[in-house]
Amino acid sequence: MIAQQILNGIISGAVYALFSLGFTLIFGVNKILNLAHGGIFMAGAFIGFYAAASGLPFWAACLLAMVGAGILANLVDLFAFRRLRTSKHGEFGTMIASIGANMVLISIAQQLSNTQDFRFPFDTIPISFFRVAGLRLSTLQVAIVILVGVLLILLVLYLYKTSFGRQVRAVAGNDRASMLLGVNPDKVYFQTFFISGALAGIAGVLIGLLFNSINFLMGDTYLLRGFVIVILGGLGSIPGAVIAGLCLGVFQSLATSYLPSDLTEVIIYSLLFVGLVFRPNGLFGMDTSAIGAVRR
Fold this sequence. Notes:
The protein is an all-alpha fold.
């Protein structure tokens, strides 16, 4: 029973990590705590749902959710963040702007959905079950693990094996110095916001499938969990986000199974407090002046 709950926690934790990767990528490169990330996540879930409900196959729904959420993230950057980057109160200003952008996205989704909960069509992914080493797996869980693994590998290859990735790392380290080397920070910001939004969008689709529920407020819950993951893993750390996401998923699965349901969220956020006491910079954290999306 415990092994099965750990497996379930790893599956959900992998999606949490995917959501948190976009969150930490924006902070690592742009030094922005993008609190609109939850709204973009929610929008991606709705885009994927409407695509699947219209009869498109699962892969097409995922692709549309990623592209749509990526474009939406770029629009948030354009209207909420771009002019604040050079402001002397930029960090505080961008945080407030991101809260406003998140509220706008929630309000639009509330009106369009009429505050209803939605569920993906039953045949979005044909559900069947099988056993491996005594553990029960579904085709949905296998699809989630494969998809998250592929996206994580592609992200790492993009950051460390391409010229665009080198530009991202240069801007993450020092945007002004990167300009002297011929790097255009605006192009890097555009790329990172799109990637961040795309990761949030596909995470929204997977969460909607995994928990069989989509609503206009779903982004707030996962934004808080993503915040816990990013803090525990280390601001700007990609490995930290992955490991902390998996740990949080496992812990949540075990707590839900063996503890009263009303204590689960309390214990999760208590972990954040304990983590900050003993590891103020997170599991993979360093001095905040050195934070960047390139840190291994």
